[in-house]
């Protein structure tokens, strides 16, 4: 296998170049967004927690400020916008009383991520979202493959 | 603004919050012990102030499969209560209650109800102690259950907090039984706006 995986924690992001592997563990209602420049083999992964940054807090925590920030940082590393595609995972309802803490945030996150990616003209080419279980996302910048691991479904490749 | 308060708490503030943990968890441990008819100990509560990104790691392995019970706290100082148990502890607890062998790979509906009820009893006694100290009338929601990755459970429990703060303030207590077969975390997560209300109710002069 290639290099040691780069950990992306909640409300953070990281950028890697082939053969780096970017990993984010324990996505619940949060959404992981992997953006890939398939010609330059540059990848960015962000672990967003909420849809909208209304109070000017940490940009990477929110879909609306985090995704554009990730794209900008990828461009600074040499990625080209027109080559970018995205794969997304997470946005689940973790708790059995239906909506996590009464905020239904998993679905709101998925919706916001779709809207922001559409605004940025980036196609979603793979996704594993919603439902009721936690996920880990492993993004291989060598070929853009994203492996989703969960206790419920085992391994799934996007 | 809220982050300012979280990051500028004095030692006196923290001691007062720890005292909430102490009395609340003490009350909960007593209820727990009565329910199970065995001895339950608790550690000295800690008041953790940390960046949100570090919260998924507080109970140990982020990817470990654990059981989480989440209750919403409603009233003058809203927040959440999260009870986290390892699979082994959950099995041991259920074994005490049901006298049956437990398959941790798949909890039955009855087992899940029993675990939720434990969450209810613990939170109820914790909150009643908190209410006595503050004069509040906090009540808890129906418990939610999850059996999944610790990181996913913890991060999803921080949503209300994350809406208005990049930092978390958690009042955390660890429960243990005499034989170390049950080990659980009881975490009180005040919403950011509730922190000053709690401190004021405890007699502090907070801006």
From TrEMBL, chain A:
One of its GO terms (biological process) is chemotaxis. The keyword Secreted does not apply. The keyword Cell inner membrane does not apply. Its EC number is 3.5.1.44. Keywords: Chemotaxis, Hydrolase. It catalyses: L-glutaminyl-[protein] + H2O = L-glutamyl-[protein] + NH4(+). InterPro entries: CheD-like_sf (IPR038592), Chemorcpt_Glu_NH3ase_CheD (IPR005659), Cytotoxic_necrot_fac-like_cat (IPR011324). It holds the Pfam family CheD. It comes from the Bacteria. GO terms for molecular function: protein-glutamine glutaminase activity. PANTHER family: CHEMORECEPTOR GLUTAMINE DEAMIDASE CHED-RELATED. Probably deamidates glutamine residues to glutamate on methyl-accepting chemotaxis receptors (MCPs), playing an important role in chemotaxis. Belongs to the CheD family. This is Probable chemoreceptor glutamine deamidase CheD. The lineage of its organism: Bacteria, Bacillati, Bacillota, Clostridia, Halanaerobiales.
Automatic annotation (TrEMBL), chain B:
It comes from the Bacteria. GO terms for biological process: chemotaxis. Keywords: Chemotaxis, Hydrolase. CDD domains: CheC_ClassI (cd17909). Gene3D superfamilies: CheC-like. SUPFAM superfamilies: CheC-like (SSF103039). Pfam families: CheC. This is CheC, inhibitor of MCP methylation. It comes from Halothermothrix orenii (strain H 168 / OCM 544 / DSM 9562). The lineage of its organism: Bacteria, Bacillati, Bacillota, Clostridia, Halanaerobiales.
């Amino acid at each position: 296998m290639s290099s040691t995986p780069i950990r992306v924690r909640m409300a953070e992001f990281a950028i890697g170049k082939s053969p780096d592997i970017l990993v984010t563990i324990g996505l619940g209602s949060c959404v992981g967004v992997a953006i890939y420049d398939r010609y330059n083999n540059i990848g960015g992964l962000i672990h967003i927690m909420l849809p909208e940054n209304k109070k000017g807090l940490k940009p990477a925590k929110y879909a609306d400020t985090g995704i554009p920030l990730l794209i900008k940082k990828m461009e600074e590393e040499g990625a080209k916008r027109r080559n970018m595609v995205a794969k997304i995972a997470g946005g689940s309802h973790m708790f059995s009383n239906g909506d996590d803490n009464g905020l239904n945030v998993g679905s709101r996150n998925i919706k916001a991520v779709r809207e922001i990616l559409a605004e940025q003209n980036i196609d979603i080419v793979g996704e594993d979202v919603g439902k009721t279980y936690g996920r880990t996302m492993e993004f291989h910048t060598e070929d853009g493959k994203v492996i989703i691991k969960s206790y419920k479904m085992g391994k799934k490749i996007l | 603004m809220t982050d300012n308060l979280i990051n500028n708490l004095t030692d006196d503030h923290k001691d007062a919050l720890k005292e909430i943990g102490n009395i609340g968890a003490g009350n909960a441990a007593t209820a727990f012990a009565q329910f199970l008819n065995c001895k339950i100990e608790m550690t000295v509560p800690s008041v953790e102030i940390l960046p949100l990104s570090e919260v998924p790691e507080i109970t140990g392995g982020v990817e470990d499969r654990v059981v989480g019970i989440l209750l919403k706290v409603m009233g003058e100082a809203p927040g959440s209560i999260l009870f986290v148990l390892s699979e082994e502890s959950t099995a041991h607890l259920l074994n005490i209650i049901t006298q049956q062998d437990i398959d941790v790979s798949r909890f039955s509906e009855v087992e899940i109800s029993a675990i939720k009820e434990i969450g209810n009893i613990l939170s109820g006694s914790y909150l009643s102690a908190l209410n006595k100290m503050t004069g509040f009338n906090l009540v808890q929601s129906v418990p939610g259950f999850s059996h999944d990755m610790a990181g996913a459970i913890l991060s999803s429990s921080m949503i209300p907090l994350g809406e208005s703060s990049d930092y978390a303030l958690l009042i955390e207590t660890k429960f243990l039984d005499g034989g170390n077969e049950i080990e659980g975390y009881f975490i009180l997560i005040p919403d950011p706006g509730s922190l000053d209300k709690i401190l004021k109710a405890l007699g502090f002069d907070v801006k």
